[in-house]
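INPUT
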Amino acid sequence: MVMADEEENGVSIQLEFPKGRVKKIMALDKDVKRVSSEALFLVSRSTELFLQFLAEKSAQVAIEKKRKTVNLEHIRVAVKRHQPTRDFLLDELPPPSQAAKPDKPTQPAGRPKLDPAPRGTRCIDQFFRKPEPENTAQAPGQPPENPAQAQSPENPDQDQAQSPVPVDES
Amino acid sequence: MEDESHNNTLPNGFNTGSPESPFLKTSTTTTQHNKEQDRFLPIANVGRIMKKVIPPNGKISKDAKETVQECVSEFISFVTGEASDKCQREKRKTINGDDVIWAITTLGFEDYVEPLKTYLQKYKEIEGEKLSIPKQMRSEQRLQQHHNNYHDQNNQPFNGAYASSNLISQPPYVPTDQKFSLTFSPNSIQSQLRQQDQIDSVGHWYE
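OUTPUT
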């Protein structure tokens, strides 16, 4: 039955991500009270589209740099090239200094602080202002410091192993 | 197996009273890895989707997968936060499909809106069909989930609704007043309200 439906529609509506996990991530936001199944479905699907977009752009960057393996630096470049994505993701990515990129000393200092205030977007800086123990209603449930710290121990070794030659962004 | 365990913890994750947010940093790698899994999408799913869009001979480093894993989880939180803010401004408690599409547009991902609407239409069509034989569908969905195939979207809503109704007095799928609605919203509301074998009704709303 399910397979027949897929064939008839020509487009699969099978979700790639487990809905329970998506719902759990959404519920990390203390402001989120209830989510309709329709909204959950749309968030799951849009996340798939975003992932495909990010993977495509990262692969393009890897090809431009004559690499067969997509690595962290290619993702960073892909994020920077898309304004909406960099608005909310640039601060999430591990800083280049931790990624053992000595040939780019000005990167941390020159990081642009883009504030999408005109659109009323939630400012990513809120993550840094409020400590973890105090989970206020306004603070999202996912502090970005943890991912950065979790990522930093592994990055230098892997980046060095996979990118022995310095890579230029431009 | 770990994923199934996490799915079983839906009530805790969905209950706003005491949601589990394990952000404690420990020196144990295994413990940290397990807790990270709670707030990230499964890296196997992430890797599989990435492989579909990169060249056939391309590879993905482990740290790239992990970074993308965090990026997509951050995307969910970003969209959710925007949709939730809109709900609060309009004094509503349930995030619905319109809120998500509005959030996607506001955040600058307009290209996603049309694909999402297309998928939503198909989702509702199949939803209407499946309501006619819910028991058979559920058993098939459990089989799929058991074999670790694609996670059918229909199994999760049932679990979510059941779990939520136990923890929260009000069922999460009861719609509240909307100040505006797109053409597909009434269909969804009708389907949720009736909870009956109303294929004709669903078809009518579509046509």
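end of record. Chain B touches chain A through 105 residues (CB under 8 Å).
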